Every structure is written in C-alpha cells, then in structure tokens.
C-alpha cells in the first residue's frame, strides 16, 4: 500500500559530500515536493515540481537542487553537504485534479551530516 | 535525533478519553483541509480531509469539524488509545495552489 517511497530511512554523510535523496510515487501525481522538518520550525518547502523537467524554488532552496526526469521520480541533491543540512527530509506528491489533492508524504529520510 | 514533538503545544489525555485537537487556519479562500498524524521518526500519515462545502466529516474514530466563520478546524478522536500518541497537524489548500500551508502541530500524549 506504500505510495510515496523514499529510498533511505537513515543516511550519514560527511561534510562536503554530494548527497542524493530519491523519491518515487506510484499514484501518477503531477506534483512532487521536498520538505525538511526540524523541531520548532515545522515543515519548510525546499523545492517542488508540477511537471516532468519542471522545478520551482520553495522557501529554502539554498544549498539544494532537484531533478525530475520522470513523472514518478523526484530527486533532491545536496551539492556539498554541510552540518546545518542535518534534518528529516520529507517527499510528498499530489494530484492537480479537483476532486481531492491526495497530498501524500513518504516515510522520511533522516540525514545526518558529520 | 530530536522529536518533531518538541516545542509544540501538548495535549495529555488518559486512554479511553476523547481528544480534541484544534487548528486555526489563515486563508479564508482555502477550500480543502487535511489532518495528518506523525509518529516519532516517521513521515506524516493522512488521517482525514474535508472540503469547504462541508462542516463535518467522520471517519473511523475520528471526526473533523470545520468552522469557516472563525477559520477553525478541529480533529476529534474518540476513545483515544496509546497508539494515537503522535504529533497532529492540519494543512489547508486553496483552489489553484499546489502548495499547502501547514500548521505547526499539536503533540498528543495518551497515558495508559
């Protein structure tokens, strides 16, 4: 019944490494999102995409990039990981339909940068 | 790592009690609302949703109430169980926007 899958639950990376977080959804959703979640700060939108090869900056895009080559897959890239990017990363997807948005989250990736 | 429940309002209840979690939303044009449950270390899980043309919707042990006049949303959980312990937060969407606005959440603690 899993509909939004994030490839890793836990990751530990070194400062300066390039990090890829992968997200795949099987609901044929048009929209996909990457958030980070930190205690006391809630969910903050990093990037989103409303179509293949399209991307839009969210509230905190600095230090991140994304890739959406296929409709079902949305990747978050940390070009050079830093300790302040230690966080819980959440992927979500939604439909652009009018009946309901079906806004669904993945199970999250806890990233630690050391 | 730190729990997302830190720094949030907390509601403590006894097992078997009914719980009411509240959310004030910001946009009077919002037409779709969702409640999520997030357990420690996991992603948010959809609980129930409601459109703005309704004022009440019921699920299994949960009821969502919408008061558009005061822009208020509530989640009622009947016969609360220890497994209901989690952070609960609301989300609002307005027509034409793909991006929800999320509430900060409430940490529900259920004592056996």
What tags apply to this protein structure?
heterodimer, A: mainly beta, B: 112 residues, mainly beta, 53% strand
Descriptive report:
The complex is a heterodimer of chains A (about 110) and B (about 110). In chain A, about 0% of the residues lie in helices and about 55% in strands. Chain A is an all-beta fold and about 110 residues long. In chain A, the strands form 2 sheets. In chain A, strands 2, 4, 5, 6, 9, 10 and 11 form a 7-stranded mixed beta sheet that branches. In chain A, a hairpin with a 2-residue loop joins strand 7 (about 65-70) and strand 8 (about 75-80). Chain A is globular, with a radius of gyration of 13 Å. The termini of chain A are far apart. The mean pLDDT of chain A is about 95. By secondary structure, chain B is mainly beta. In chain B, about 0% of the residues lie in helices and about 55% in strands. The two termini of chain B are about 25 Å apart. The interface between A and B is medium-sized, with 27 and 27 residues.
Computed Rg of chain A: 13 Å
Helix content of chain B: under 10%
Principal-axis shape of chain A equals: globular
The total beta strand count of chain A reads: 11
Question: CA-to-CA gap between the ends of chain B?
Answer: 25 Å
* Strand percent estimate of chain B: over 45%
Alpha-carbon distance between the two ends of chain A? 34 Å
User: Could you tell me which chain pair has the largest interface and how many residues each side has?
Assistant: A-B, 27 and 27 residues
Q: Could you spell the SSE succession of chain A in H and E letters?
A: EEEEEEEEEEE
Q: What composes the largest sheet of chain A?
A: 7 strands, mixed
Beta-strand residue fraction of chain A: over 45%
Subunit organisation of the chains: heterodimer
Helix share bin of chain A: under 10%
Please compute the radius of gyration of chain B using only Cα atoms. 14 Å
Would you report the number of β strands of chain B? 10
